[in-house]
Amino acid sequence: MSQHHLKHTTSTWFRTQGHGMPLAMVALCAMLGTNAVWAVDPNVKQLRIGFQKSSINFAIAKQQKLFEKEFPNAKITWNEFPAGPQILEALAVGSLDIGVTGDTPPVYAQAANKPLYYIAYESAKPLASAILIPKISKLTNLSQLKGKRIALQRGSSAHYLVVQAVRKAGLKWTDITPIWLAPAEARAAFQKGAVDAWAIWDPYYASAQIEDQAKVLTTGKGLSPNYTFYLASPNFLKQNPQAVKSIIQQINLADKWVQSHKTETTSLIAQGTGLKTNVSKVFIDRRPSPSYAAPLTAKVIADQQQLANRFSELQIIPRPINIQQAVWQSK
User: Fold this and answer.
1) 176 and 166 Cβ atoms separated by less than 8 Å
2) pTM here?
3) In the chain, which ranges are E strands?
4) Which residues form the Solute-binding protein family 3/N-terminal domain (predicted)?
5) I need a surface site. Which of 14, 17, 137, 206 has the fewest CB within 10 A?
6) DSSP states of 258-279 as a string?
7) What's the pLDDT at 331?
8) Are the CB atoms for 161 and 131 separated by under 8 Å?
9) What is the pLDDT of residues 150-168, one digit of tens each?
10) Pick from 243, 259, 283: which is nearest to 120 by CA?
């Protein structure tokens, strides 16, 4: 699909779907304007993007060179990371301009006084993360996690999922033994039986389900909304304050394409990540549709503040934080 056609169909969607549109999308339309075809932004000179295997909209934008077309004078670089904490570390030290993460990494970063701003979010996807157990496990409920070893990435969305699961089970955080591992290492430990459970998100979740016959002890439903967030460095925003609109616009053009090209997206994600096609399909099918990027709403900020408060209460982060202070306000 051409860039012009992508823009035209997305603009048409905005016009025809407006009456039933969520508040976030109404805000997005107001933010982006109503022109059928948006002009490219010639002012951005550099755009360094951090993404993960779970970043479907970024993957499609990369494949179709949407940012390259939107920012014709910029040097665009794409950098893949295993998880959100690593992306925000790179953002904080000035190696990236924008990145995409789950809900917990920006809370960790803000609590550590690392510079960042939330610029957009995607719809909650609680079914896209889970606490998995081996196919031979006898565990059947969360309370049985007491005394168990759970693999997870520290500071990731899986971290919050485990915090919430432990709380729901009536256990204390000290009742479990967290084993801090990045996804690849956690998968190896899970396969070897070195841990009793693994808290993880898609597509690693889908891969373990299909290839390892992992069982689901719980998903994020009722525990964690599991939002996706787009974040930017303060320096990039200071130098390119109008670029946020263009960035969100391109993310949403990619998502619009995904919605109408599920089969092609499945193949592209499989090719780009090395996932098997059936794993890629489960991953994409579990993703909310649409998954547009939009400015943070009051509810999203409140949900994120609850996460931060929970981590502060448990002294997982060193101090209380105010999420609103890290939300970018476009001029």
Assistant:
1) yes
2) 0.83
3) 46-51, 75-80, 98-101, 117-122, 129-133, 149-152, 177-180, 197-201, 215-219, 228-232
4) 46-261
5) 17
6) HHH-HHHHHHHHHHHH---HHH
7) 64
8) yes
9) 999 998 899 999 999 999 9
10) 243
In the chain, CATH 3.40.190.10 covers 3-125+227-326, 126-219
CA 110 to chain CA centroid, Å, is 17
CA-wise closest residue to 133 among 27, 237, 56, 208:
208
Query: What is the per-residue DSSP string for 151-187?
Result: EE-TTSHHHHHHHHHHHHTT--GGGSEEEE--HHHHH
The position carrying tokens 């609680």 is: 126
Please list the residues that pair with 53 across neighbouring strands: none
CATH no. of 126-219: 3.40.190.10
Whether the Cβ atoms of residue 8 and residue 38 lie closer than 8 Å to each other: no
State how far Cα 29 lies from the chain centre: 22
User: Which residue shows structure tokens 């998502």?
Assistant: 255
Give the relative orientation of helices 56-63 and 262-273 as an angle to the nearest 10 degrees: 90
pLDDT beyond 70 at 24: no
The contacts of residue 72 (CB under 8 Å, 6+ apart) are 40, 42
pLDDT at 9 over 60: no
Contact 293, 255 (CB under 8 A): yes
**CB neighbourhood size of 309 (10 A):** 15
Confidence of residue 41 (pLDDT cuts 50, 70, 90): low
* Position 172, amino acid: K
